[in-house]
Amino acid sequence: MVNHHSGIGLNGITPIQQMMASCSGAFLTSFIVTPFDVVKIRLQAQKTPFHKGKCFLYCNGLMDHVCVCENGNSPAWYKAPGQFRGTVDAFIQIVRYEGLKSLWSGLPPTLIMAVPATVIYFTCYDQLRALLKYQLGYDGIYIPLIAGASARMGAVTVISPLELIRTKSQSRRLTYRELGTVVRTAVAQDGWLSLWRGWGPTVLRDVPFSAIYWFNYELMKKQLCKRFSVSEPTLKISFSSGASSGAIAAVLTLPFDVVKTRRQIELGELAMSKSQRHLSSTWKIMQSVVNESGFEGLFVGLLPRLMKVAPACAIMISSYEYGKSFFRKINNERELKKS
Questions:
Q1: What is the pLDDT, as a whole number, of residue 286?
Q2: Which of 17-31, 124-138, 185-199 has the lowest mean pLDDT?
Q3: What is the rounded CA–CA span in Å between residue 177 and residue 113?
Q4: How far apart are the first and last CA of the chain?
Q5: Torsion sign (Cα): 162, 200, 55, 46
Q6: Stretch 21-45: mean pLDDT, rounded?
Q7: What is the band of 174 on the pLDDT scale with cuts at 50, 70, 90?
Q8: Taking CA 244 as the corner, what is the angle to CA 238 and CA 246, rounded to the nearest 5 degrees?
Q9: Burial of 98 per CB tally in 10 Å (0-12, 13-18, 19+)
Q10: What percent of the chain stands above pLDDT 90?
């Protein structure tokens, strides 16, 4: 039942509490996963130094970032590469010569974008799931699939213009007033729809990922709760269900991820060169990948994607579930005191 007086929803917590739980999850995930991606980018830069105006992709499991390099240094946060012998050596050297703070040098853009996106996504998912289950009385196993896909579609649509603005702003340091001018110019030249230019490939990757992820997560969580005879998922149950379902979804949607990466980099480079050339279509990019590297090309980078997505999903969902049960407990105690 909904407690209208206190605003507590069907799942025992208020939408504001849901937002707080997802917000803390996003902060925690960004904080833990970012150093690994900073190291990965630095190792990549060592192998193939980035040229002026060249883009590279930075992604920490919550969010993708296209970063543009100026003379080998991005004005956003990227520093000139050192000489590293491997991952562990890179960690040690970065901390020793640049300070511990450098490991989180990719964090600000993540927090500006990933936190709002995650809050919208997780809150919408829970609200939609509760609506389908309790209000419409539909109790099928496909609820997480429908709710997950719809919530992701909403989050991507809201965040898409910000993504485009950020790609443009990273090519050089812009003030907020200049950013406003960039947006007005883009709208004047190509219309409002130009703000959603990267929407297609993002939806193609993120919506199926979300549907597969939530479907498997809810299924595994239910089975594990039954197996260990608990009514609420423990931290261990949430973590293992999140990691497994994230890994399955990452493997199945990898071809779309490859396309999305290429498309984002192309978008960043077009913004840099101020070229009027049209972006390649998703189908065209897929064809060129297959022509260049065969069908295996669509599954390139599977291990790094798994190593990033599985822990990110596990940390995010377990901290979110923990946050929700924490607020639920507080609400229950409050209700008991009242009665």
A1: 82
A2: 185-199
A3: 19
A4: 17
A5: positive
A6: 82
A7: low
A8: 95
A9: middle
A10: 28
The tokens for 276 are: 């009027």
Q: Facing residues of 57 across strands?
A: 66
Q: Which residue has the tokens 């007086």?
A: 5
Q: What is the pLDDT of residue 94?
A: 85
Domain boundaries, the chain: 15-35+107-338
Assess whether pLDDT exceeds 50 at residue 189.
yes
Selection from 8, 80, 15, 68 nearest residue 268 by Cα? 68
CA atoms in the 13 A half-sphere facing the CB of 296: 1
Alpha helices in 228-301 (DSSP H): 235-252, 254-273, 282-293
* Integer Cα distance of 229 and 315 in angstroms: 23
The CATH number of 15-35+107-338 is 1.50.40
φ/ψ of 62, rounded to 5, equals -100, -35
> CB-based contacts of 205: which residues, under 8 Å, 6+ apart?
253, 256, 257, 259, 260
Higher pLDDT: 170 or 141? It is: 141
Highest mean predicted confidence (pLDDT) among 56-65, 108-117, 192-201, 246-255: 246-255
CA separation for the pair 291, 282 (Å, rounded)? 14
Tokens of 45: 């830069």
65's CB contacts (< 8 A; 6+ apart) are 57, 58, 59, 76, 106, 109, 110, 113, 166, 170
Closest CA to 106 of 205, 192, 40, 7: 40
Length reported for the chain:
339
DSSP conformation class of 197: T
Give pLDDT, residue 64: 62
Residues β-bridged to residue 65? 58
HSE of 282, CA atoms in CB hemisphere, 13 A: 14
Consecutive H or E run containing 328: helix 302-338
Between 220 and 64, the more confident residue is 220
Using CA atoms in the order 134, 137, 142, 145, what is the torsion angle rounded to 10 degrees?
A: -40
Q: Is 163 in contact with 110 (CB distance < 8 Å)?
A: no
- Give dist(CA 195, CA 122) in Å, integer: 24
